Amino acid sequence: MTTSFDQRALATLPSRGELAQHDAAVWNLRLRRDAAAAEVPDWEALRERAAALKAFTLDHLDELLIGFEEKARAAGAHVHWATDATALCRIVTELLSARGARRVVKSKSMLTEECGLNPHLEARGIEVIDTDLGERIVQLAEEKPSHLIVPAIHKTRREIGALFHRHMGTPEGEDDPERLTRFARADLRRRFLAADAGISGVNFAVAETGSIVIVSNEGNVDLGTSLPTLHIACLGIEKLVPALADLPVFLRLLARSATGQPISAYTSVLTGPRAGGELHIVLVDNGRSALLSNETQRGALACIRCGACLNTCPVYRRAGGHAYGSVIPGPIGSVLGPALGGAAGAELPHASTLCGSCSAVCPVKIDLHGQLLAWRGERYRPPPAERLLSLGAALALRWPVLRGLARAALRLLWPLLARRHSRNPAEAWLAARELPPLPKHSFRAQWKQRERGRE
Amino acid sequence: MSERDDILARVRQGAPRRTRHPGLHPPPALPGGWDVFAAALAGVGGEAHGPYSPHALGGALKELVRRRAEGGRAVAEPSAAELAGRGPWETAREPATAHAFADVGVALVKGCAAAADCAAVAVTESDAPHRALPFLCQRLVLLLPVSLLAPDLHRAWALVPAAAARGHHVTWISGPSKTADIEQVLVYGAHGPLGLDVVGIAD
């Protein structure tokens, strides 16, 4: 059954009384981002440069992809191309099956979430362990990530403690974040050492050298890609950057925008496989080439997945990531939704106040709120009642007599509109807020009286 | 048409070649220096030591490694062992697999470039041929000649030897491994090292 954004939002955070906690946790990330950005003297110049580099990349993407493929092969990597999610799942399954790999450690990759790789592999008897702590938590809870950077931001330490008790045998009632992290470390260390293959996402791919760049804080990416013999890297075709020397621009922006760190703990630039290992890079399209040809919306392909637009968004903060029903939540998810998100994505451009805060913090200067508005204009077909209301408003604004009549009618209807009732057209709004009573005299009447008083 | 050609043909349609590469970003005017690096490293959970003159280095390192290893196994990558001399550590040889390092308490690795503003130290394949070692060890000790310290990431990036950057892996390490995935409580020691020390070597 499909549910609406409102229904999903109400079914997640607010119903559990965790709205304020979620809001505060997410806003805290925004504050840290602000503090980190303020310490960088050339912050705005960096954003300009990053936007220009991404614009160049998208304008020359085919050339850069061909260059990347050639250099990656020369460095000893195997390069595969996948048109869509099905192709990615097929390629990865074939690579694993051909080597008899049954145990896979995986590090964070929104692309594999988008393509449903985990359930595909699990259905074929391959064990996939998410190794990022937050991803591991949502995997054990059989949920989806609710944030790009902090996948389990919607879960409390108590819930996580109970989850670890069930799955890892931690002491009952243990909910200390440091001790829980240590238990997960020990549990996952064992799995890293036993894994047959590692699957990772990619943050940037360098056309000049055929390198892939992966950033992480936990060290899971490097353990997962260097211990097993086989490393499969899943790479969206938009992740290219022209040259190695372009990377510092993005690296100085990424972690500061995400968590306020000056840089992530680990930034690994991998060119070819490790000694004695195999590296397979799967380049995935899955709707990206179509988005590239959409003049108004292609800018979203510049996204470096920092999550800053989520942290600042008043809708995301209060609705939570699961309300979006898409792999990527928040403003960027709402922009990508109609293009990549299937049926659920169509309504997402409306999950925004268009306040523009997302565009203001975006490190690569994507015009997020402009693109959301453009989607609405392109896709939204208002119901008859709304069209009638718009027409009425247009007429009233045109003719002062009608405007006066409308005002008088509204004053009469106000008490009815303010009453909570399932047949009240304003009920959706009233569910979360109250209509204040109207003052006895309208603003216009008060103004006239004031003017008279002055005379 | 193969999937590759199919994707490239569609990408070509959306790539009108209107823009030019904007060129290199001019590095910001930042102070740099060992003290700036040490302060930034403390901010990300690491600890800076020194810088020591080459003849004082051995003694300081022995003391530090003993303290960090707490009787456990200490291993130095070959280029780090060359700088550090002899001490309470073994030199890493070619093991059959990286799994042979699973019980390492302290690893010593040489850095080949560093950025003071973000406390990131670059480690390349020539200095850390066992790619998993800097992540498997419980505590990592990086040896950094101060001549390889630049004020910012742009300048530091340019210090990584071109051959190393093009042919192999390079990892920039800033502090110990960390996570804040449980209610945003910062915990050092997620999957990688629990602690990071950077020992400066004066010219």
Keywords:
heterodimer; A: 455 residues; alpha/beta; Rossmann fold; 3 domains; six-stranded parallel beta sheet; four-stranded mixed beta sheet; 22 helices; 10% strand; globular; B: 203 residues; 30% helix
How would the blueprint of this fold be written?
The complex is a heterodimer of chains A (455) and B (203).
Chain A: H1 5-11, H2 19-38, H3 43-59, H4 61-74, E1 78-82, H5 85-98, E2 103-106, H6 110-115, H7 117-122, E3 127-130, H8 133-140, H9 157-168, H10 177-194, E4 197-200, E5 204-206, E6 211-216, H11 220-226, E7 230-236, E8 240-241, H12 247-258, E9 266-270, E10 278-284, H13 288-292, H14 308-312, H15 314-319, H16 330-340, H17 357-361, H18 368-379, H19 384-398, H20 400-418, H21 427-430, H22 443-454
Helix pairs in contact in A: 2-12, 3-12, 9-10, 16-18, 19-20
Chain B: H1 3-13, H2 34-43, E1 47-52, H3 54-69, E2 73-76, H4 78-84, E3 90-91, E4 104-110, E5 113-115, E6 120-124, H5 133-136, E7 139-145, E8 149-150, H6 153-159, H7 162-167, E9 170-173, E10 178-179, E11 187-188, E12 195-201
Parallel strand pairs in B: 1-12, 2-3, 2-4, 4-7, 5-8, 7-12
Antiparallel strand pairs in B: 5-6, 6-9, 10-11
Describe the protein:
The complex is a heterodimer of chains A (455) and B (203). In chain A, 52% of the residues lie in helices and 10% in strands. With 455 residues, chain A is α/β, with parallel strands linked by helices. Chain A has three domains: 1-39 and 300-381, no CATH class; 45-286, NagB/RpiA/CoA transferase-like (Rossmann fold); 384-454, no CATH class. In chain A, β5 (204-206) and β6 (211-216) form a beta hairpin. The mean pLDDT of chain A is 93. Chain B has seven helices and twelve strands. Chain B has a single domain, classed as NagB/RpiA/CoA transferase-like (Rossmann fold, 3-Layer(aba) Sandwich), CATH 3.40.50. Chain B has a six-stranded parallel β-sheet with strand order 1-12-7-4-2-3, sandwiched between helices. β9 (266-270) of chain A pairs antiparallel with β9 (170-173) of chain B.
